[in-house]
Structures are given as C-alpha cells and as structure tokens.
Amino acid sequence: MSSGSQDFLVIVESPAKAKTIKRFLGEKYKILSSMGHIVDLPKNKLGIELEKGFIPQYKIIKGKEKIARQIKKEAEKAVKVYLATDPDREGEAISWHIKNLVSGKEKKECVRVVFHEITKPAIKEAFSNESDLNLNKVNAQQSRRLLDRIVGYFLSPFLWKRICRGLSAGRVQSVALKFIVDREKEIKEFVSRKYYTLDAFFEKGGLRFKARLVKYKGKKIEINSLKEAEEIRKLVLNEDVLVEAVSARSSLRRPSPPFITSSLQQESYQNLHFSSSKTMVIAQRLYEGIELSGKEMTGLITYMRTDSFNISGQAKAEAKDFIARIFGNNYLSGKEYRFKSKGIIQGAHEAIRPVNAGIVPNDIQGFLSKDEFALYELVWKRFLASFMREAEFKNTKISLSKEGYEFTVMGVKLIFDGFLKVYPEKIKEEELPDIRQGDNVKCVDIKIEEKTTNPPPRFNDASLIKLMEEKGIGRPSTYAPTIYTLISRNYLRRERGSFWPTDLGIVVIDLLIKFFSDILDENFTAKMEQELDYVEKGDISWKRVLEEFLPKLKSDMDRAESNSEKHLESAGKKCEKCGAEMVFRWSRKGRFLSCSNYPKCKYSESVDTGVACPECKTGRLVERRNRKGQRFYGCSNFPKCRYTSSNLPEKK
Question: Quick check: is 423 catalytic?
Fold first, then answer.
C-alpha cells in the first residue's frame, strides 16, 4: 500500500464496541463506528415509489453526513472493508447500506463478519470466516421498515384530521396499545363481589397447622355471606375432625432456560424493577464491553436481541466444568434440557449468556455500576442454573373432613436444592405433623376473612412483553422501543409500575378499531410478523408481503375518508370571549376546552375536574401537562395560587 494508507477498515455501530474490538485486532485494522443507521427513508415524505415495485428512496440521515464522509474516505484507503455490525436484521441492513455507500466505481471489497460475543476467540473466528451479506435478512428488515412507513404515512394524517396534528400510528405499537386499552375497559366494567375464606387451625402432637376450606360434599365451595361462614365455624370449632386422606409424593422442578430477549426483560422487571428500555441499554453496555482491570474493555455477555435458546458447545463445557468445580458433580444435570424456541428463525443465534462462566459477578463488582452488576449477575446465574440438577421437593397433602366440609393443606419440604443453589426462588416451606389417615385432630381456631374479587391487573413491562411474545406481536428488537414510543407519544403513562392508557390513547384506539380493524387485529399482525420471518428464510419475496398488504390498507383508507368526520364533543359551557359553545379538542398532550368558533376565536382553557383547590379554596383543579407530557393538576387561580398535585385529592 502507498504511504499513509490503511490496510483494513472495520465498521461497527458504536464507539464502545469499537473500543472493545480494537483489543483483539492488530495495527493494520482501523475501526470506525457508524453510530447506528446512517441511511433511512426521508422524514418529510413517504419515500417509497409504490407504483414502481416499492422502490425505497434512501437518504443519509440528517446529522450523519460527517460520519458517512469519514467512512467513505477511510474506505478509499483500505484494501478491504469488514462489516462487523450486530448479527440481527438491523445489523445486516446497516452493513448493506454502508456497502452501498463505499463501493463506488472501484467496487471496493466489502465482506461481512458476524459474532455473537465480543471475545478474542469469537473475533478471531469471525475474521477467519468472512462471508457475503445475507440479503434475505436485509430484505426482511427492509420490508418491515417499508411496512411501518406505509402504515404511518396513511394513518397518521387521518388521525390529524380526526383528532389533532402530530399524532402517529404504528403497525406493532397500535396493537400493543389496544391490549392496554382493552384491559382498562375490562377493569372499568368489572363488578366486584364479596366472598369469604375460612381457615381452620388444627393441633397434633404440639404442632399447629392451618388448612383451608375448599369443598362441600366433593364440590368446590364458595362462601358468599358472613352468616354462612359463621355457621360453618360453629359446626367445626373445638370439634374433632377426621383425617380423610394423607398423600406424599416427590416432585422435581427443572430450571428455566437461559435468557432470550423477552424473558430477560420480564425477569429484569420482576426482580430488579428495570423497565424494558433500561434493561436493553444496560445489556448493550455489557455486550459491547466494560473496562475491567488494567482499563481493558471486556465484553461480558453475548448478543442481547435473540429468541433462540441455543448454546455453543464450548460455552456448555465451560459452564459444566465451573459447576462441577465449585458446587460438585452432584449439582450437574445428568441430562441436557430441551427448551422450545419461540421464533421461526434461529440460525446461529445463541441465548443471552455470559461470555465466560468463570467471570464471577462478585469478582468484577468493583468495575460495574450497581445496575450493571445486578443485570450481569442475573444473566450469569440463570445461565449456570440451566445446566444444574432439578430441585427436589417432598409434597404432602392432608385432607380433613367434618359433616361434608373438606379442608386441605399442602406441605412442601425442599429435599435437594439443585439449581436453586445458584438461582434461588421464593419457596414457602411448611412443616406438617406426623399424621395418618383415620386420625382425628381437634380444631382449635377458625379465621374468617372477607375478600372481594379483583379485576384483571393492569399491564406492566413484564406482562405486556409476555403477552406480545405469546401473540407473536413484534420481535426481540421491538419490545422495548414499542413501549418507549407509546409513552413518549402520550398514549400511555407508567404509574406505580403499571401502564395506564391516556384519554388520548383511548380515543386513538377507538378510532383505529372503527376503520382499520385488520391492522388492530392481533392475528393479522402476528401473521405479518411470521411472513417477515419467511422472508428472512428466503421462502417468500419481500415485495410479496407489501403487495398483499397495500390494497387492503388503501381500501380501508378510502372507507375511512368517506365515512369519517371530525367529532367535537360539547363541553356544556359558553366561550368567555365570544359566547359561542365550548367543545373538547385534543392536542398531543391531552384534552382541552376550545371555542367552537376556532380559528376565528382562539379562546381555550384546561379541563376542569370539578374538584376545589385544597389550598386557596376558591379555585378549581384543572388538568395540565408538563414539558414531558405528564399529567398533573393545578389551581385555576394560577399564578395567584400555585398549588399542584400529581393526583386529585380524593384519589390519594
């Protein structure tokens, strides 16, 4: 090469990943970061030639021009360009766009290198097995991107006309929002009822145990009145009760599989209280590299966007060796558990695991933030547990009866902890007395508790992602961005860990269901996700997915345009400025009151909640939004009275 030339150029997405990879490559390799996608569809127009075979009009993303120029300049000096972006569809598409950017007239040699962990052996193997780009993956990503742009391009202006400007609709996000809105309607329509539980306390050999009333004459019992519960208490209390049956059996509990994207996000929320977005940000850092001893960047986990439970042979051997060495052979599973993978596409993907089982969390805790340590420890423990023996329990069930009323108690005793040694779970052990069938035990106390039936719970990060995965809505890379988008667009809010749809979110969903039922249908959306998987497999053409989807969307759009008018709900009051009727209108931040003569009269005011201000007593609390779009309540006498609250006083 000429003086000042660069032998090889390596392109990755992030500076952290570049810094980690640099450790394993020689001086002849220059590593640049693309900072994610550098090319995308234009923002201000559709950017797809629908009538010419769905030709996309890609452009360099605004703000990425400098990066694009630098990549082109360095590529011109390089003998070969290595495209080392992430091993999923998005990564393949980024590499494809970069190849198109740098190829030019000279047809610069660009090769693909793929790795699922950033370690020296993985990097060495990847660069020894360079390949061509996987165009099926590129096509799958491209068809998803075009589908989402087409949906947004047609539906968003419709929402602007009917509700307010600035709104947007998405193929996956709208279905996820519908789940949340439907659940909210279930909760509001739910009618609770009272019922009573009856727990009897028995004594045998100085040991007291509790059993619950579950049946009457062999049928499940429901106690709906306190009078009925009191009658049963009188019948049983201080009486001898027959031990009808005693059964004991052993049971085995197998470990859960190593994490995939969805299960990591669910478990992280339940155990660490991390949102899905926070989980993925931290996982990205652990994958790309953390500075450990000697200030060296070290990747700690494998790629975190996956739906495969595969584990490499080397990783399995390392895990088994570690378990045998630290816990003993007795804790090693004698068989290999088989876990059913979720998606159609698996390929060479692996589950999320530590790159080296020997990197014990406690040994590196000083180099990690509190959150990084917590997530790495979770991944490490779950991975090791999946190669350990089942936990063994002894389950004892005692059934007692009196005058046809049957009480049962289940005693659980841990015999062998197995995988629980590493990945503990909450187990309520209960010791039961040595008791036999035919014995009589005395009822020494009875506790009656009034309860009410509860509506289904609101979704949180874990339960929403679980439902999306079960229904086939979205894919590993889309769960966290979908939730983030819905919150940022003020379609839902996170309150005390649960998702609540905003008034705006409910209005949007009701309107979309009315005119675009297919797009809001979970089965239709899941079928489209599956078709994208088939595109990646090479079984169907990416254009076919779009060709089948577009006519139905256009038909629904025509019907919506011809049958819909902007509906303005009367607020039941007159405009203080011109005397015209006030109506409810919408903005991206929520509902407000506006003069029906708008735009001639631009008078508007916040929605009155009807609650008196607890501070000044003369004003009323009105709905307001802060800069982030979060709702709060403030006094109508502002700025004279500055009272604010995130909750209405009577709802505290």
Answer: no
